[in-house]
Amino acid sequence: MRISTGPLASPEIAYEIARATAIHDCPDIPYQSQKNFLALFDNPPPGYTYERYLGYIDDQPVGYLELTFPQLDNLSNVEVDLLVLPGHRRHGVGRALHALAVERARANDRRHLQAATVDRHPDGAAFAEAMGAKAGLAETRSRLDLTTLDEAKLAELRAEADKRSEGYRLRRWIGVAPDDIIDDLAYLEARLNVDAPTGDINWEPEKLDADRMRKGEEAREKRGRRSYQSGALIGDKMVAFTWLVVDLDRPSHVWQNTTLVDPDHRGHRLGLLVKLDNLDHIREQRPAAEAIDTFNATENAFMLDINLAMGFRPVDAWIEWQQDL
Ligand SMILES: CC(C)(COP(=O)(O)OP(=O)(O)OC[C@H]1O[C@@H](n2cnc3c(N)ncnc32)[C@H](O)[C@@H]1OP(=O)(O)O)[C@@H](O)C(=O)NCCC(=O)NCCS
């Protein structure tokens, strides 16, 4: 048995390996279409470059390595997506791709390799530990089942949020944010790595501005995804927001992304308010949606409490790993 690595011969092979691994590791998340997977190659989010490789047993490609290099911030980091087909594990393909990841990280002047594993199968965590990575942050994936929502509870939460947030008003948008709030949006989104727990992972604040936010949404749309957003404003200033993303080829499933309230405006239930408003937004705009999934740092009790109150329930546990070179 000969183990080797090489450049990505064809993106379609990468898709097949990524799809088979994802279905094995997280069968409840509908996997993206080939079209939308391949669209990332030509439409990356602004500020990131990629390198992609295959791992082989003899001449058969069974492993895929995708390295993501932030170029505008987080310049000492590289994100590692390392996947080996379930039927071909424990033959050293992962180890060979990891050695390549370390080599490429060094060649790009990166000092921190970062990757995530899920607890459903022992492989990912056992492998990361064997490669010398350190567990840096525990995360929980939670799901809101849109087919069994507790409408009375949601109405009660909304009444409480409305009462506590007097003076603020809500605003919704889809895709690129309107010009008059896009600077506020960039400021709030960039606070994520400051305000949300990052454990021992070296995540630095992203350098975001209106131009990068705009290009990010345009690239997302070209990847077959659309974001649905809701913000809370006081006067003309947006001080809280949240966003959901739908893969247009997989309309039953929705991802919950950042929710953030400006530190000067906390304590008014704005986080809950924008999330409840955006839940109504997505239900109106995407009636085929059946579930919303979200990741939270397990120690982020405040966000998890909001999610639990809305009806989100934990599905699985994840670890973010970091290996320092
Ligand atoms: C993690 C993954 C890439 C490993 O691929 P692989 O080709 O099986 O890895 P290797 O055969 O090179 O294993 C290298 C070492 O990791 C450890 N390891 C890997 N899987 C393990 C398991 N299930 N139990 C215990 N140790 C394990 C062992 O020490 C192994 O060396 P050994 O076989 O000589 O004992 C693969 O399981 C996978 O694709 N998992 C899902 C995606 C994922 O979690 N990626 C990891 C991101 S860091």
TrEMBL record:
Keywords: Acyltransferase, Transferase
Keyword Cytoplasm attributed: no
UniProt cross-references to InterPro entries, sorted A to Z: Acyl_CoA_acyltransferase (IPR016181), Bact_Acetyltransf (IPR050832), GNAT_dom (IPR000182)
Domain N-acetyltransferase: 1-156
Name of the protein in its database record: GNAT family N-acetyltransferase
Species assigned in the record: Paractinoplanes aksuensis
Organism classification: Bacteria, Bacillati, Actinomycetota, Actinomycetes, Micromonosporales
